[in-house]
């Protein structure tokens, strides 16, 4: 696909958030700071890819495309939700367009492909959204950092702890049958069973399954205390709609991954289908805090809709990078200095919460929220905070060295305590 030049969304982004000023500095470098941003604008993840880009654009719209006296030039490429295309675009951006860093992608398969290129080419690769556990665990690449996103199993462990504390003892899980589903369910199951809970059954379904009734019937027969569900894309709306239409919503407690009740999903549903559903995430658009409210209000003014997780991740990824570039006086060509600055910076004032920092494996540490879908006074559905788990690591309470000795989560290994 022909390279797309970076064009800021023409919608007005609203007043700037209260962020640290990127004041001019006397830098020695000349020429623009060149950033290659990849996101799916076509293919199965196009809608989430667009929200990631919108959040990214909004930060630069509010803060200006300059770091000191150097212009920030952002070259946007559509990865087509395809790993081969992502690899080609990464190579083109780096080798032909001369970008100083690669940023973006959404799907794990595209992120893994670009990470391999970044490893070979020794170019910084920053991931605001890609969630594959292995990229910041067993497959750690020093110049690949997760700036704004999360590792898949990181988000669901607090939800398992919350569920056990509510007295739930028997869980049935329903997840999409691929790596992200395996990792999110695995993180939940390991903490749930280590806390004394048991797994009554596990069901896996292919991506884009139109009818989940076969699984729902089997789940009911197992008589669980709670059901944990992991879906993305169209499957997210389907599980909520079918859970409600089969009459389970008021009979069997359902807790979900953050994607199931993401704003991109619940804005398309009616309250009867999703109000009251519990999930966990590092972002809650209904959170009562100035930083979150400022971001949500500005995004809503700009795009005429409430932001979801990917918009918040795009904004935070841009914010994190701008802080790091300022810290090294705009020396974007100095990859080691950039990686060091990104790794050592603690970012405050993000849409996520109090602070975000990087662990020694290249993954963020941040607050994780237990969320409930509620209706705002204006009638719009949002995820409001029920409980906060402060500064959650991708390793939870485990020793990282010991944790990494266990297998990666898969259908075969779900971390079930013996």
From TrEMBL:
InterPro entries: BCAA_transport (IPR051010), Leu-bd (IPR028081), Peripla_BP_I (IPR028082). Keywords: Signal. This is Branched-chain amino acid transport system substrate-binding protein. It comes from Ottowia thiooxydans. Belongs to the leucine-binding protein family. Residues 32-374 form the Leucine-binding protein domain. The keyword Signal applies. PANTHER family: LEUCINE-SPECIFIC-BINDING PROTEIN, PERIPLASMIC BINDING PROTEIN OF ABC TRANSPORTER FOR NATURAL AMINO ACIDS. The keyword Acetylation does not apply. Residues 1-28 form the signal peptide.
């Amino acid at each position: 696909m022909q390279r797309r030049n970076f064009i800021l969304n023409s919608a007005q982004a609203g007043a700037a958030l209260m962020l640290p000023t990127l004041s001019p500095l006397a830098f020695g470098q000349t020429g623009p700071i060149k950033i290659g941003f990849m996101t799916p604008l076509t293919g199965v993840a196009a809608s989430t890819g667009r929200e990631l880009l919108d959040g990214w654009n909004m930060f630069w719209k509010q803060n200006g495309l300059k770091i000191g006296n150097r212009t920030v030039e952002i070259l946007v490429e559509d990865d087509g939700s395809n790993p081969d295309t992502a690899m080609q675009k990464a190579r083109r951006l780096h080798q032909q367009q001369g970008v100083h860093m690669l940023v973006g992608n959404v799907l794990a398969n595209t992120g893994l492909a670009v990470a391999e290129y970044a490893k070979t080419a020794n170019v910084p690769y920053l991931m605001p959204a890609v969630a594959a556990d292995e990229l910041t665990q067993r497959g750690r690449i020093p110049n690949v950092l997760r700036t704004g996103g999360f590792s898949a199993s990181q988000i669901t462990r607090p939800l398992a702890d919350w569920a056990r504390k509510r007295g739930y003892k028997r869980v049935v899980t329903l997840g999409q049958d691929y790596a992200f589903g395996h990792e999110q369910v695995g993180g939940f199951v390991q903490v749930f069973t280590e806390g004394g809970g048991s797994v009554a059954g596990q069901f896996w379904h292919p991506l884009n399954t139109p009818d989940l009734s076969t699984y729902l019937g089997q789940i009911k027969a197992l008589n669980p205390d709670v059901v944990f569900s992991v879906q993305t894309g169209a499957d997210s709306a389907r599980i909520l709609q079918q859970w409600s239409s089969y009459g389970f919503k008021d009979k069997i407690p359902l807790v979900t991954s953050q994607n199931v009740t993401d704003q991109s999903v619940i804005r398309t549903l009616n309250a009867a289908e999703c109000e009251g559903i519990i999930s966990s995430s590092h972002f809650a658009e209904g959170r009562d805090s100035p930083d979150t409210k400022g971001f949500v209000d500005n995004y809503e003014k700009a795009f005429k809709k409430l932001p979801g997780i990917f918009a918040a991740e795009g904004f935070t990824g841009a914010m994190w990078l701008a802080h790091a570039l300022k810290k090294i006086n705009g020396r974007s060509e100095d990859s080691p200095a950039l990686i060091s600055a990104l790794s050592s910076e603690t970012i405050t004032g993000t849409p996520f919460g109090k602070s975000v920092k990087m662990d020694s494996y290249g993954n963020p540490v941040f607050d994780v929220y237990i969320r409930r879908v509620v209706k705002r006074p204006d009638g719009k559905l949002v995820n409001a905070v029920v409980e906060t788990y402060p500064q959650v690591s991708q390793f939870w309470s485990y020793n990282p060295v010991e944790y990494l000795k266990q297998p990666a989560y898969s259908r075969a290994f779900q971390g079930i305590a013996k």
